[in-house]
Amino acid sequence: MLFFASLLAAGVQAGAAAEIGEAPAAMKKSDCLICHQPDQKLVGPAFRDIASKYGHADIAKLVHKVKAGGSGNWGETAMPPHPDVSENDLAAIVTWILEAHAPGKPAEKPSVVIAGTKPGAEPAYRAFPVIGSRVIVWVVAQLHLMFAAFVLAVPMFALIIEYIGYRTKEKKYDDLAHEFTKLLSTSFSFTASLGALLTFLLIYLYPKLMAYLTSIFGWTFLPYAGLFFAEACLMYAYYYGWGKFHPRVHLAIGIALNLVGVCIILIADSWLTFMNSPRGVTESGELVNRWQTIHNYTWMPINVHRLIANIAFGGSIAGAYGAFKFMGAKTDEERAHYDWMGYMGNSIAISALLPLPFAGYWLGKEIYSYSQNMGMTLMGGAFSWLFIIQAVLIGTLFLAANYYLWLGMERIEGAERFRKFIKWLLGAITLCFIVWATPHSLVATVEEARKMGGAHHPALGVLGVMSAKNTAVNILILTTYVSFMLYRRGNKRAIVPWASKGNLAQFLIFAVTALIVIALGVLGYFVEAKVRIRLSVPQVGSVLLAMISVTIIDIFMYRKAEKTGEIRWGKMPMRSQYALFLIAITFTWLMGLMGYVRSGIRQHWHVYGIMRDESVDAFTPTLGFASKVVSVTVLIFFTFIAIVFWLTSLSGRKDWSAGGEGETK
């Protein structure tokens, strides 16, 4: 007579696997399934037959028989002895067989073994139901990066605003900085939760890729976790310590918080950029130099680009929060405060937006330098039309930002003198927008292409090349900067004796810069491609130099300016707040789109040139499909942001009273 039970028992007949209930631990070490099965005779009797014949009173006798071995009770086939198994273990096994397989107990059914669960035989990929592995990782990664960008950016400009308040002794700056940081607590929780979800999804859905990246960057995980913990401690100390510490101590906490945040960006960007431009490994992917895997070809451009983009994005979301609070304000004082908050958020966003295209040029240049094939895919291949969408989005940003500034000038006493310039600024912005959004190759039918003489429009085709687009975006930046300068001067009049000369110098700087940008753009039509690409550097440099020079002159010229009127905070039309919402939504959509580009240019590679993507998703999704995914992601993000806004607003509400009088302080 033979007995067997196990926690995870598998039937051996015909190679089938079966799971046997919750058996004692001793069953795992037995050899019983060689001869027994739960519900059918194999070499020896089935467990159910044994349980039908014997009861609890027979446990001692059965333990003795199993230990000694023998034959006769179930035929002539002998059961081998089990002298090495203790009587306590045998008693547990026998008891379980009699109880788990007693008459009336439902038969245990064999379970199907799930593929890929055998230790050491993990698959390279796993599927996510309905939407697929790529889409779920795509959406969660974008949501995590959006919240992370906001959480890392807010402390940067909150610290600057707090410092301004400390230096000027104006409490409104301190209050505004504190108001911005109220958004951090809930946002940080969303960031951490989405980061954990993303990690679990990557490990489960892409185990082979994650195993390789862990072998390269595993040594950075512990410092990253330590920095994340430090960021949480510093962030809560910065928020809850407001007014509790000496101002210098609190500022020091803010500085430490921002330094930790920057270090987190640097580490995370190394993982991202290594996949696009691997360095420090052999051609087959073996690690050679740890520092080079971090300091790869696109690491620093991405660091700079993301840092600026995070500030712009964070400012736009903070501006949207100001608009949200402005629209729900009950008093003139509240409207004035949140009008100012929306203005500051928008100013931060636009201040970062102006240099952002320059950082994008640098990143694009490094991508071209690393791989011409990747660079051509980015600008001239599958993603070329995506940059038309990008142009529309960025053009919308500039239009909305300028529109908000022009509306804001209506609340400034004395700004009426600048209204005559708005129509010219609008004309320049619109013209640049049209040029930037003009495609190089038109989507046309065969008949339309024949009439045009090819894929390029005979008249508009010249506007579709990079020379025209680089010129348009630089003029667009200059024009927006002029709008900002006019807004800043709205209620001020320079009284320094050299004011007229200063204005003339600023005008000449703008005029000369515009001529340089246009001249270099025209020159680009008459030189080869590699020279044309390099012409963007002096274009960018001249615009940056112009903005810096004009700003320096303006600071000194208006340092002791005469006030011509007051800024009537809160006296803004409601449509101005919709402009702030539009800016935030457009920034978010743009972030999602460019995230798709950064990953998509790898095409069918997980790690470019080293680890191929061999999953069912090893193809570049269409632009239409990508737009749908990005749009859904943006909707989910703003749903979460609405929750953040609502939770943050609860702190300003009065306490609920059970006395029937509604709310009370």
Write structural notes for this entry:
This protein is an all-alpha fold. It folds into three domains: 13-100, Cytochrome c-like domain (Cytochrome Bc1 Complex, Chain D, domain 2), CATH 1.10.760; 125-369 and 573-649; 413-566. It is built from 22 helices and six strands. It has helices at residues 47-53, 59-68, 87-100, 133-168, 171-181, 184-205, 207-240, 247-276, 290-294, 299-327, 332-353, 356-370, 372-379, 386-408, 419-436, 446-452, 466-488, 499-523, 529-534, 536-557, 574-600, 623-650, and strands spanning 492-493, 562-563, 605-607, 611-612, 655-656, 663-664. The strands form three sheets. It has a two-stranded antiparallel ribbon with strand order 1-2. A two-stranded antiparallel ribbon has the order 3-4. It has a two-stranded antiparallel ribbon with strand order 5-6. Strand 3 and strand 4 form a beta hairpin. Helix 4 runs antiparallel to helix 6 (184-205), helix 6 (184-205) runs antiparallel to helix 7 and helix 21 crosses helix 22. The longest helix is centred in the first third of the chain and has 36 residues, at 133-168. The radius of gyration is 34 Å and the shape is elongated.
Please sum up the structure shown.
Helix content is 63%, strand content 2%. The chain is mostly helical and 665 residues long.
What strand order characterises the main sheet? 1-2
Q: For the CA atoms, what is the radius of gyration?
A: 34 Å
| Coarse morphology | elongated
> Structural class, from secondary structure content?
mainly alpha
Number of self-contained structural domains: 3
For the sheet with most strands, the description reads:
2 strands, antiparallel
- N/C terminus separation: 80 Å
Oligomeric state: single chain
Mean pLDDT: 84
The total count of strands amounts to 6
Helix proportion of residues, in percent?
Answer: 55-70%
H-E order: HHHHHHHHHHHHHHHHHEHHHEHEEHEE
Low-confidence stretches: 1-20
Please indicate the percent range of residues in DSSP E strands (runs of 2 or more).
under 5%
Number of helical segments with 4 or more residues: 22
